Amino acid sequence: MLTLIVLLVGTFMASLDVAIVNVAGPAIQADLDTSAAALQLIVAGYSVVYATLLIIGARLGSDHGQRRLFLLGLAGFTASSLACGLAWSAEALIGARLLQGASAAAMSPQVISVIQLAFDGPARARALALNATIVAAGVVVGLVLGGALVSADLLGTSWRPVFLVNVPVGAILLIVGLKVLPDPRSPVARRLDLPGAGLLSATVALVVIPLVFGHEAGWAWWTFACLAAALPAGVVLVRHLRRAADPVLDLSLLARATFARGTVALSAQMVAYGGFLFALTLFLQNHMGYSALECGLVFAPYAIGFALMSLAAPGLPEATLRRLMPLGLAACAAAYVGLGLGGWHLGLELPLLAIAGAGFGAGFTPTMIRMLGELPPQLAPDASGMITTNVQLCYALGVATIGSAYVSSGATTFGGVADACGALALVSALLTGWMVGRARRSGAAEAQLSS
After folding, report:
1. How far apart are the C-alpha atoms of 434 and 413, rounded to whole Å?
2. 355 in Cβ contact with 308 (< 8 Å)
3. What torsion, rounded to 10 degrees, do the Cα atoms 123, 126, 132, 134 define?
């Protein structure tokens, strides 16, 4: 039990820091006299480095041991959080945030790998459900916690507790983790494919950097140049991965129908999730006059609905779960659209947020468990890195597309964003139904053969 707690709290801290700093931006800018560009690096630099290095972090764990990489990443994350909290200038804070992102990339992909290698049967499903819940819910909790800490202004420290809160938690996890974490090595140890690692990092960076910084940069020419360059870089990367004897990423994962379809379904869900959170936060603060803390609290029903359904769904009978996954995402789509109808009335909107969160949880967590459930242990590190990177990329894509379209339109209502998020959730419902339908037919065919 302690092993799982250490792993999941580490995941929670990494996910939390994607969003917890967002609400502290104005306080940081006023205290350190930062430029808009520097503030953007402080807020988003973490996500850029985190997403860029995730797959490499997963591979290093496979090569050198998941326990070692998790603990090294946790130590770096704790130390860099302390450096962020004590930063005396914008430059120091930027450097510490980038180190924080690199440390998170070393730490978080080991969690799925350890769960896959160290747990079996129902225990593995429960652990994966908890991990999926934390990955998605951590962003919402970050908005609430960040708003609370900045508003509290503990001992006049303003924004600094947003980072310092990680330090005691990380120190305790290190002490406990050194004693309880297993060292379940992957069956086959492989050397790091350095050319592939370089190509992979460059390709991901060419996508992530313009998506994260494009809005603040007014979608300058270089943002489109980076996205255009990502295509040939990706082609070169795929060719290398197909030819390399020991590639940094095993593309055979995408030849598995459940994994491939689950990846597309998760992508649609996360694009909707990223755009929804970003745009609704702006709508509540800019047009409804909510404070950062009040805005975060509005998302509480969404987070609660997601957590309850995400944890309950894996324990349901298989036949029930197959129906629930697409139906839950369809209910999420309907709730998103409902949130954009008419004015903003909490008596109506809060229940809709709970329905949207529960529907998202009914699809997100079981989809991730199915994607991982059929994989052999040797593919766990590559699958972990690919899933986690995809989640981060698609969250950023949602912010960059749906969120930026909302800002650019100057809309004073939430209808357009709600419709876009609802459409994506409906697409994900259809893809999820396709995925579980194929699994049902495959199971029936296997049963006939065995009889």
Report:
1. 34
2. no
3. -100
Distance (Å, rounded) from C-alpha 309 to C-alpha 364? 10
Instruction: Please check the confidence at residue 449 and state whether its pLDDT lies above 90.
Output: no
**Integer distance in angstroms from the first to the last C-alpha of the chain?**
40
- Please give the DSSP secondary-structure letter assigned to residue 286: I
Amino acid at 226: C
Region for residue 34 given its phi and psi (left: phi exceeds 0; alpha: psi -120 to 50; beta: otherwise): beta
**Residue 291 or 308, more confident:** 308
Q: CA 274 to CA 421: how far, in whole Å? A: 9
* Residue 236 pLDDT exceeds 90: yes
**Statement: residue 262 has pLDDT above 50:** yes
φ, ψ at 291 (rounded to 5°): -75, 170
Q: Are 74 and 107 in contact (CB under 8 A)?
A: yes
Q: Structure pTM?
A: 0.83
- Residues 35, 40, 42, 48, CA torsion sign: negative
Task: Give the three-class secondary structure for 246.
Answer: coil
Q: Which residues contact 434 (CB under 8 A, 6 or more apart)?
A: 261
In this structure, the chain runs to a length of 451
**Helix boundaries (H) for 153-252:** 161-164, 166-180, 194-213, 221-243
Q: What is the rounded CA–CA span in Å between residue 356 and residue 367?
A: 17
In the block, residue with structure tokens 């402080």: 42
Encode 304-358 in three state secondary structure: HHHHHHHHHHHHCCHHHHHHHHHHHHHHHHHHHHHHCCCCCCHHHHHHHHHHHHH
Please name which of 196, 294, 183 lies closest in space to residue 251, comparing C-alpha atoms.
Answer: 196
- From residue 333, alpha-carbon distances to 6, 273, 337 in Å are 34, 11, 6
**pLDDT tens, residue by residue, 144-197:** 888 788 888 888 888 899 999 999 999 999 999 999 998 776 555 567 788 988
Domains of the chain: 1-187 (1.20.1250.20), 193-247 (no CATH), 249-451 (1.20.1250.20)
CA distance 11 to 419: 31
| Token pair for 36 | 């808009």
Give the residue from 98, 108, 84, 90 showing the smallest Cα distance to 162: 84
